[in-house]
Amino acid sequence: MTAPGVLEVDDVTFTYGKKTVLSHVCLDLAVGVTVLLGRNGAGKTTLIRTLAGAARPTAGQVRLAGSVVDGRVRRGRSALRDIGWLPQAFGYPPHMTTREFVTYAAWLKEVPADRIGPRTADALDLVGLTEKAEQHLRALSGGQLRRAGLAAAIAADPAVLILDEPTAGLDPEQRDGFHDLIRRLRAEKTVVVATHLLEDVEALAGRIVVLDAGAVLWTGTAEELAGTAAAPPGLHGLRQGFQTVLGQDR
Ligand SMILES: Nc1ncnc2c1ncn2[C@@H]1O[C@H](COP(=O)(O)OP(=O)(O)OP(=O)(O)O)[C@@H](O)[C@H]1O
């Protein structure tokens, strides 16, 4: 039996027609933060969608606590209920209030009726949107909207939280706020963050998985990444390390 919260990626391959976008990806994602780092087009979003059960692998499986994550209900309880997902861009009903949006997300994830109110309140509190709870989503700023999306993703208190480029397009202050939030969640959840920003890697630490051309090229810590370029940790060292790791592919 796998440890609770471990998302197993077992030899996952994904193709669009003849184009292979993920190739034999194997990962065990455990409690804490794992950063999926890769250049544009490396396959991060495709892997994220596969982890979230939004895309079914062409071959291989994703499993959570032994249940296959593919959108189908197995043994009466879908693994998807335990997975929260914040896509890069998400559609939202502009006339819904923030509270209605998060409440709806909790309902979709089948949170028991008497728990929906408290869970929604907790999620809004965690992302700092309690004061905006009765505002329409269309009135929120980009950063607030992203936080509303995060509140929706955590509304059912999932064991796994999957975030696709959560800090893209945010200003430095909003980005710091998001990093703080993720650091708070990582103690008890399996958090997977796809990014191409080394600032995210530096702020979130955790485990790094470098994805390139659809394959896992390297895994390790931030210190180890900088170490591949014999550089000290820090943004500059991470950049040098990332380039060194990518260069090893050629
Ligand atoms: N619907 C699709 N049909 C065909 N090819 C696709 C489709 N979606 C993505 N791809 C291709 O799959 C590859 C991986 O894309 P993906 O979006 O997963 O990468 P990414 O690492 O998330 O990139 P980015 O950082 O730019 O978001 C790219 O070459 C992309 O062009």
Automatic annotation (TrEMBL):
Gene3D superfamilies: P-loop containing nucleotide triphosphate hydrolases. PANTHER family: ABC TRANSPORTER, ATP-BINDING PROTEIN. The keyword Nucleotide-binding applies. Belongs to the ABC transporter superfamily. One of its GO terms (molecular function) is ATP hydrolysis activity. This is ABC-2 type transport system ATP-binding protein. Residues 7-238 form the ABC transporter domain. It comes from Micromonospora pallida. Keywords: ATP-binding, Nucleotide-binding, Transport. Pfam families: ABC_tran. InterPro entries: AAA+_ATPase, ABC_transporter-like_ATP-bd, ABC_transporter-like_CS, P-loop_NTPase. The keyword Protein transport does not apply.
